[in-house]
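subagent[fold] <- orchestrator: predict structure for attached chain, return tokens only, no commentary.
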Amino acid sequence: MGLPPVDRAGARVSGDPSRIAFLDSFCVLTYSTHVSDSASAEHDDVLRQFVLIIMDRQTSTVTFMRWDRRQISFPLTSSLFTPDSPFRRIRYVPLHNILLLETIHGESIAAELPTEEDPAPVRGRPIIYLDQKDWSSLAKALYEPKRVQPTAEREAANKIIDLARRRKIILPISAGHMSETCKWSNIRERYRLALTILELSGGWQMRDPLDVRRYELRRSLLERFQDTQLPQQNVFTLEPHAINSGRRSQEAPSQFDDLPPRMAFILEALTSIMASFDTMLDTSWAEAGTPATGWVERFQEYTDWLATTGRSTAQRRKSISMFFIADTRIEIAEEARAADITVDTLGDWIDQYLDEDINAMPCLGLFREVLQQKHLDPGTTWFHNDLIDLMYITCAAGYADYVVGDNSLVSQIEPSLRRLNRPMNAYRRLRDLVLVLEDAGYWQPEGKTEHL
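subagent[fold] -> orchestrator:
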């Protein structure tokens, strides 16, 4: 049996006063104050001795449990739980880097945590990005199975759920999912959907497409003109705040910068997860604001005008490419400046290398190609959510192993992938994806997997 909780004056965890003092420092460090960087190595050594750290909202305590089940508890001097937090207890398992969150209703959610050495521990698992409609199907399969029709789609949903729960696949969440979920006015269904997304995503996020696009541009320009190779970006990751990484104007400096690096990283990851989870499970309805429609009118006018020009397909594609450059000019200019590219050099890039380099960019290249597909179709009608949907799905298809999306978008992604000579990884239905997973050996009808 573990020792009963003791206060800071207690000495029932160890006879070593320095360890008692460190536990006290660790607790205060975690929730209120700071210590010097010189303690970083010692903090890492002691942290490894704990098998479980429990933060309890009801008792306002944090409890540290060692491998021999000896434990010590301290009061939370600054709670992680906001007054309207949906959680009542958090468990952190340092050895496995897992966070276990228990809601006030008794549901449990497990989330993987990153490390500084490996913020994206994929470990060979296929990454599958789901459209909001498919997340909705998974939620219905869990709570109202008969609503998922036909039966083959319900069975496919159950297989995806099983693989996700066994951590055999990665189902990342994006800011687009968060936004769409929080707009639902049906509180009961929104909570169920949010709970499903959080449980099955397990802390994995897709990086903000705006950040991905910029990084692709910078990486390409540096490689082309500065002979500099930037590492491949982790688009699907556990990295703190990656889901909103493209909103630079909203970024704030870390509140943990003056802590030992490992501790600061753990706390940053914990804060990121709590913020996302609290937002998703908030029972108040986030009423949708008035969407910006200026771009819709501009895109529609351009599509309609292009249909009347009488130009060949090749000429119209070139025209759309220039429209694309004009629309992304700020991103291109800022990343050229970040790469220390001169105006003249940038002009040369646009004239000589833009098509080749953009096509090679997993996200931006597919975005441009699908944009061309939509503009080339004289029957295209643009809606206010089209551009956001297009940005997220093309970013996902550029980097994920598989994508399940809206029928109309997938119908435009398919020819775009063919034109770019990329493998087909976009599907319209969950049952189409499951067939591919079965063929690849990730799921066998008898419940066995070959790959994992």
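orchestrator: received. Logging for downstream: Confidence is low (pLDDT under 50) at residues 1-39, 446-452. The chain is about 50% helix and 10% strand.
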